[in-house]
Amino acid sequence: MKERLQAAFYWLNVWTWIRATLLVVTGQDVTGRENIPRKGALIFTCNHFSLADPPLLIGTFSRRIVWMAKQELFDLPLIGKLYEMGGFIPVRRFEADLRAIRRSQDALRRGHVLGMFPEGTRSGGRLGRAEPGTALIALRTGAPILPAAIWGTEHVKLPRDLFRRTRVHVRFGRPYRLQNPGRFTRESIMAGTDEIMRRIAQLLPSEYRGEYADTADPSVTAEART
Q1: Residue 111: CB partners within 8 Å, gap ≥ 6?
Q2: 216 exposed, middle or buried (CB, 10 Å; 0-12, 13-18, 19+)?
Q3: Which residues contact 114 (CB under 8 A, 6 or more apart)?
Q4: Domain count along the chain
Q5: CA distance 91 to 61
Q6: What is the number of other CB atoms lying within 10 angstroms of the CB of residue 188?
Q7: What three-state secondary structure class fits 81?
Q8: What is the pTM of this model?
Q9: Which residue of 116, 154, 181, 203 lies most exposed, with the fewest beta carbons within 10 A?
Q10: Is pLDDT of 217 > 70?
Q11: Torsion angle, CA of 169/104/183/212, rounded to 10 degrees?
């Protein structure tokens, strides 16, 4: 019952009014929507330049996204309750939050889209080094990963720019899976993390790639079936 209420809240409030607002205040250049699987578990990964990124991605995505969001947002009066009602997963950043990992894995087992920003925080317009959590969840679940990139939001400040028309670019790549190393080691998790970020970097113009400026084609062991 709780999950149904969260889904209803998401579609009737979050997705609906966000899409309506974005049509007014943004010009959107979106490609690759055909790469979004219509059903099944999926880890959605993207760079994170601005507070405007999550609503813009929600507005361009055809499925409900169960976002992982920092615990600090859930601690805010009223706003925290809205995040909870939307079914988002609180995570304590920069530490091993086992509860958040378990809830994320459960969301994937239920066939949901899990939304993650691998960098763990906003990077200010250039890719920063990612945290290992996304790769760990991907390796433990075997779920396909959908890479995406967003730019044009790096100079947006909310709520200041809420009614300034902004040109935003979104690119969705093809789903893929990380190779299961058989035994999870720090090295295998870091290799998975680097591949996740290279996939994102490939979708960004070179000036935004930051720590992944020397990106080359990552090795892919198995494409996800869509």
Answers
A1: 39, 40, 41
A2: exposed
A3: 41, 42, 43, 44, 65, 66, 68, 104, 107, 108, 137, 143
A4: 1
A5: 22
A6: 18
A7: helix
A8: 0.86
A9: 181
A10: no
A11: 20
State the residue range of the domain holding 44: 2-223
CATH number at residue 73: 3.40.1130.10
Q: Output 119-125 pairs: Cβ under 8 A, ≥24 positions apart.
A: 119/47, 119/48, 120/93, 120/94, 121/48, 121/70, 121/93, 122/48, 122/49, 122/50, 122/51, 122/53, 123/47, 123/48, 123/49, 123/210, 124/49, 124/154, 125/49, 125/154, 125/155, 125/208
Largest CA distance in the chain: 50
E-assigned strand segments in the chain: 26-31, 42-46, 65-70, 89-91, 113-116, 145-151, 166-172, 176-177, 222-223
Q: What percent of the chain has pLDDT over 90?
A: 51
User: What is the reported pLDDT for 223?
Assistant: 39
Six token digits for residue 202: 């490939």
pLDDT band at 4; cut points 50, 70, 90: confident
Q: What is the mean pLDDT of residues 166-176?
A: 94
Residue 182 CA, chain-centre distance (Å), reads: 26
The backbone torsions φ and ψ at residue 169, rounded to the nearest 5 degrees and listed phi first, read -115, 130
The whole-chain average pLDDT of the chain stands at 86
Q: Which residues contact 25 (CB under 8 A, 6 or more apart)?
A: 162, 163, 164, 165, 166
